[in-house]
Specification:
By secondary structure, the protein is mainly α. It has one domain. Helix content is 53%, strand content 0%. It starts with 17 loop residues before the first helix and ends in a 10-residue tail after the last helix. The model has no long low-confidence stretch (mean pLDDT 92).
Amino acid sequence: MTRTPKIPAPWVPPTYSKFDVLALQALNTGTANESQQKRAIKWIIEQACGTYDFHFMPNSQRDTDFSLGRAFVGQQLVKLIKINPTLIKEPT
């Protein structure tokens, strides 16, 4: 018998630890050290946005859409983090 893993509903808030909260709060106030900055961005991209998760929800198109919306935000963050700034054209 094969077991199908339970897929959490996309609107359920992601898990976080005390250290995630402290890192995000320090990032918000501009006092985060290097490791807090990295932890906060990692939590946003991987947990809050679920950027690298599987987004198809077999029982609901709306759930799939919701999940993809979260992922889109994470994808935009990853793009801006990785893009070569010299490729950005300034408005004329």
